[in-house]
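Handout, section B. The chain below has 541 residues.
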Amino acid sequence: LSLSVCISSRELFSPSQKYQLLVYHADSLFHDKEYRNAVSKYTMALQQKKALSKTSKVRPSTGNAASTPQSQCLPSEIEVKYKMAECYTMLKQDKDAIAILDGIPSRQRTPKINMMLANLYKKAGQERSSVTSYKEVLRQCPLALDAILGLLSLSVKGAEVASMTINIIQSIPNLDWLSVWIKAYAFVHTGDNTRAINTICSLEKKSLLRDNVDLLGSLADLYFRAGDNKNSILKFEQAQMLDPYLIKGMDVYGYLLAREGRLEDVENLGCRLFNISDQHAEPWVVSGCHSFYSKRYSRALYLGAKAIQLNSNSVQALLLKGAALRNMGRVQEAIIHFREAIRLAPCRLDCYEGLIECYLASNSIREAMVMANNVYKTLGANAQTLTLLATVCLEDPVTQEKAKTLLDKALTQRPDYIKAVVKKAELLSREQKYEDGIALLRNALANQSDCVLHRILGDFLVAVNEYQEAMDQYSIALSLDPNDQKSLEGLQKMEKEESPTDATQEEDVDDMEGSGEEGDLEGSDSEAAQWADQEQWFGMQ
């Protein structure tokens, strides 16, 4: 209304007041999420400011409205440009955002402008410019932890980053923990999970940082990356107890629960997170994990895409959508998503696992082997990388012996690593060495309980005619994951053998299932087919 009055009667408002009105109007549009309109009004405001600057240069101050104290407190031109850049990032026009911020002279850039520039450069792959901007943030704000993490993620040495904060650490009491914190996250970004875990544990034990939710979340994530799902879940639960409104990391927690077959817990977690905020990717990913492990892949695809739309940097959302696409037979699209996940998280093994599974699904064994070898060389020879390489070797009859050697090395490092145990059992099954397989599985189950291991042990026991114990193992597997179809099939087969009089009835049921009745079991996917029609709306094409 005031702008209309201003246009109709120029005498009522001074040029500086018109500039203020335009900025206020643009700010209002920004907060209403009308970003394109806000950019238009910010542009008009900058044009008005330019005209105002020319007028003030031509005509010196005469004591009128333009030179009052009010004109001394005009909205900063730099702040207006920052808001325009924010609008462009919300519109996913990163090049325009960079162009606006690049137009601000270096000496006039505030820490938040340099921080935004650093993040935009990083996203655009301009690593050198990103490092320069992060360093400029640290020069002005030595305790900017996000800038420290940004530099570490761009492979800047931990010692170099620490040297930029050493003066402030020495000048402030009780801040000596920060140098250890930097060291810990340097290990995180080089993929040295074991040393990162040990360093963060040492920090977490200090009285000053005991029960810190952020550190607990980082520990949980590191245990997950190291393949220690049990400790990861424990740390996530501990963090949740300390902060019931915690959202960060809950997507990984939901994924772990879903993998363990605790779908009811996943559903409850998703509902709780949606009650906290539906504007974060995590609730959508958790619900997507519930759908995925319920074999409702179309719905999982939609939920993963929605999560990506809210946060294009959500690695877990990319992995969820990629896995859903792969299981729906859309392997090439899945590959795009796994590659993007690798770009965002080059030290996370599960991103590479997803991509390699896609290659194997499309019989691209050579590409899978190249990728597995690269991961082995990049992330080092640990139980996880050895197992991943062995998994690919198992697909080729020529490399069976190599697979066996790799798995033995992996199990020597970590006898309890479930994926290595499963693959070694698969190899022993091919060689029909059932007694060796039983010994391997019993040893692995001595200190842990896992649905897949109990089910495979059941299969091996059947092979050596230990039917009663096989039934017990299938029952244990189903108690851990009631949705495990293979354990259910194994148990039903055992029951058939025990009750031959009922075999005919069981076969009739099987015939019904094989003749199309399975549609009811997979009904959740057909029910969710409506989501697939909206694929063009999905976060990533």
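Note. Confidence is low (pLDDT under 50) at residues 59-69, 501-507, 512-541. Compare this with the example in section A.
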